[in-house]
What we know:
Helix content is 65%, strand content 5%. It has 350 residues and is mostly helical. It folds into 2 domains: 3-52, no CATH class; 70-313, no CATH class. The strands form 3 sheets. Strands 1-2 form a two-stranded antiparallel sheet. The chain has a two-stranded parallel ribbon with strand order 3-4. Strand 1 (38-40) and strand 2 (46-48) form a beta hairpin. Helix 4 (69-96) runs antiparallel to helix 7 (147-158) and helix 12 (257-271) crosses helix 13 (277-305). The chain starts with 21 loop residues before the first helix and ends with a strand. Residues 22-47 and 52-64 have low confidence and may be disordered.
Amino acid sequence: MDQHNGGELPPEQQPPIVLPKESDRGLPEHVEPAKELAVASGRGGFTPAPPPDDPEEDEDESGMLRMSFMDHLEELRSRLIKALGGFGVAFLLGLVFATQMWDYVRAPGQAAFNLIGRGEFIAIDPMEQFSIIYMWTPLVASFFIAAPWVIYQVWAFISPGLYPKERRWAVPFILCTAGLFILGGLFAYFIAFRFALQFLFNIGGPVGVTPMISIDKYFSLFVDVMLGISLVFELPVLIFFLTLIRVASPSFLLRHSRYAILAIVILAAIITPTPDVFNLTMFAVPMILLYFMGVFASFLLVMRRENRKFPWKIFFIWLAGVAAVGVLCLLIAVTRFHYHFVPYWPFLGK
């Protein structure tokens, strides 16, 4: 025994460490051996092993696709090509039916001319008819036709970076986004744009001005109103997405709703092609309803996170009651006051 080391053997002469058997330690058979839970050190001590991985985290991690930077670029390239391909097919389809589409484009203006009893469309530039009817009309129609396909390609690009449970939002996301975009276009076409044109075309009537509208200027106004309102109708999706990434919450949105309403009115004043209060209200009220629809959707998301259930039964009872009152008022208007349905807002006339 070496006296210089305090009576201890040097490390190279120390006997190997023998771990006791599970039966000697009185441990049950299902307990992992000590050698898997600790690592012997050079002086006979033990260093604790790292804790085991969370199985739920492993399951989520295994569901995520691992992609390198070049893989992301290749995926982006593939999705862009597919999106442009779908847009090209929609454009060719619109080109085949260009004249029929132009009939739909000019229908709101022609209805306004017929209502005020004067006015017509004209073409000033020699190339104006070709560019508007056979180029720009199919191009704008392609945005609406190819919208579901393009949105799907966007989702398919970002989905590899999501957990499997988050990918379940794909179908609702595509349907809601594309549906609201198309619904905004329908609202602009059948309601907002028609009333705006009636006001604009008739504003010079008392002073003897006859509207002779260039199809180029008319189409520019048509596109601005259609695309502007269609994008505004995406407000519920934007609010839901902000709640999903925890940037906003329903309580925050309700607490600051007065500022949101002020911003909506200002935006409606910018989008509205006429300065009158009636058209401003017709633009602002649906946008405010869309805002609170988005708040309701974010509230459902927060309740789902907190494992709470929304009282759908009571909600549908109230909704059915409101619908019944609306149908009753409609029947009274038709049967008692002799109203009938017309293909423009408010869809009732005598």
